[in-house]
């Protein structure tokens, strides 16, 4: 009997659009054809890079870029470099999205990308500040109450994830809900079921930080049962 | 009718089989059937009857004859003796009903549950020729004091009369060498039966000699004496050894079932000697 | 005409058969990978009982030969399907469908599996019946060099043998009954297996996983392809798919056919042992013949003229 659980899914209590961890993702649409370089940072340190070729001829409407795998598989290249053959190149249609996510480890990634011909003079996309058209989504597993804040720690709203119980039928999470960040201040509380997705549509200069608040004792990890125990006092009594 | 109507196990060996057993016994263990002095044993050309031995007997240097002491010449203070051999040849067994051996009239008809044995017994004595005897005689004279008539008349002590000369060393005993044996053969007939005895936890066959006859031997006293001697040889020397072979042949085969066995009680005569066979009826002892 | 006749009654043949039967035991294990799950067994058993019935057609029938299980353990390892969350549609276009989909994140780092382990000892009643004919074989000792004489073979313990086997014509195995509690045992084992798999998780995670997996029993029943009749499924899996019944039948058939002879007779047969340096006296056994009648087993043999 074996099960190596992805423990980060169980343990993590903070989800940050500007510091991506597992269960979260950021999507960006590159609207101009050409080659883009994406620099991948983990804990604010440049770790690796990749290219995204955007063209109307590319069929794919989605390039899913898994950042932890990218870091493990490819070395970083100098900013502005275009000739490193080891750098991975993703192809995407001009109508499509690049989706950045993490599926291994503790994460804390963000990405910055620029049009290659601009020689890195200015970043076109920085995942720590989402702008109109950018998306931040996540799937919350742990039931309880969460607090939503912006990049300056100002509260935005609260979020409640309702627990599900095993039933006679297999549980299928409901469809994801969409939240416009421009209107989030109107929402007193957002309700989700466990494993139900939520997508935040950015407006400008947005960053979303979600912290788990309701730390219920009953949700603590179970201890490994003790089969037998020897103690000095027991031994002396024996 | 099944063989095992009255017992758990049944074993039978017929007389042809037994005679083959005796034949193999004779070839593989010839020393059971041939006896003689060491010199005779080692000199096959002197045997009264040539011995047909299995090649393995010779290959393993097994004796063809059992070595016996030479026959002392009486009156020589064991100084002189003669070579001899005795050989049992053509031994044959006939289980009731008698149809293979014609018993001499002295033994009458073979009784029920009995078996007959016949064997030709050949014996030979190493008799020296006269010249050798003359020579030995002269040689022996030199060992004895001469006896004069005067000594007897004068009433001297007779202690040294015809005694060995005291001043000479006593010679080693010798068996008079021979280059041939004077052989003769006798037909011996015997009537036997088999008893089962329990020795400890083991049931054993025990062949018993009822009567023995040597035909055409006279006078009657000589015949009786030789018969007496042959009886002792058969009863004390031969049958006990054949008994072991019989037991191995019958009991070992029947002990294929790994349980204790015993002669079946429900059979009147057990073992039975009938229909030219030796039959054994065995029950398994279930504890 | 044969020189020797040996007959053993039906009772004695039963005893002989009991001797073979009591020499027999099997301790085996096997497993098979069925794709979504692996299953195996560990069995040890011996035989008891068995009524020998001799037939007029030179055969014997053995009935009610009970298989006594000393160990009957069934185990299965079941791959739980990959359990991933996310993957929902972010942007869907009319007529095109979903054009942007959230990534799937899998809860387990590799395919998880659970094991169930059932001790079925004492829960299965089964017996064997068979029919066999005598098979008399003259077995030349395979270790005996060509040309070795009978005496050297005796010394080296390499004598040839007459061996009487009972050659099976057919062997049947009957599974009479699984105990009623087998179904409950299996379901409890599955429940426990899932609990054991997730024991270290917090309750909310366990609940979520269980909810997504759906009812565990249904899930595993589906994977294992258990129908309505657990007895039938278990018999089919153990007996047919895992080949346990074939193993038993083959083992019993081999036992009778060439492992444990009913009777062994050394050839040449010793009647006097070594006596000092005097060689043993042995008899050549020829023309051995064996017949089963309705009443007894009859063996006849002749003593050969020469070794």
Could you describe the 3D structure shown?
The complex is a heterotrimer of chains A (about 240), B (about 290) and C (about 300). By secondary structure, chain A is mainly beta. Chain A has helices at about 5-10, 65-75, 230-235, and strands at about 15, 25-30, 35-40, 45-55, 60-65, 90-95, 95-100, 110-115, 125, 135-140, 145-150, 155-160, 175-180, 190-195, 195-200, 210. Chain A has 2 domains: about 30-130, no CATH class; about 130-215, no CATH class. Helix content of chain A is about 10%, strand content about 40%. Chain A has a 6-stranded mixed β-sheet. A 5-stranded mixed β-sheet of chain A has the order 1-16-11-12-14, with no helix packed on it. In chain A, strands 6-4-3-8-9 form a 5-stranded mixed β-sheet. In chain A, strand 3 (about 35-40) and strand 4 form a beta hairpin. The radius of gyration of chain A is 22 Å and the shape is globular. In chain A, about 35% of the residues are buried. The model of chain A is unreliable at about 75-85 and about 215-238 (pLDDT under 50). Chain B is α+β, with helices and mostly antiparallel strands and about 290 residues long. Chain B folds into 2 domains: about 10-125 and about 180-285, no CATH class; about 130-175, no CATH class. Chain B has helices at about 15-30, 40, 55-60, 130-140, 150-155, 220-255, and strands at about 10-15, 35, 65, 70, 80, 85-95, 115-125, 175, 180-200, 200-215, 260-265, 270-275, 275-285. A 6-stranded mixed β-sheet of chain B has the order 3-2-6-7-9-10. In chain B, a hairpin with a 2-residue loop joins strand 12 and strand 13 (about 275-285). Chain B is elongated and about 90 Å long. The model of chain B is unreliable at about 155-160 (pLDDT under 50). In chain C, the strands form 5 sheets. In chain C, strands 2, 3, 4, 9, 10, 11 and 12 form a 7-stranded antiparallel β-sheet that branches. In chain C, strands 1-16-15 form a 3-stranded antiparallel β-sheet. Chain C is elongated. The mean pLDDT of chain C is about 85. Chain C has 7 helices and 16 strands. Helices cover about 25% and strands about 45% of the residues of chain C. Chain C has one domain (about 5-305). In chain C, a hairpin with an 8-residue loop joins strand 13 (about 270) and strand 14. Chain C has about 300 residues and is an alpha+beta fold. Strand 1 (about 10-15) of chain B pairs antiparallel with strand 1 of chain C.
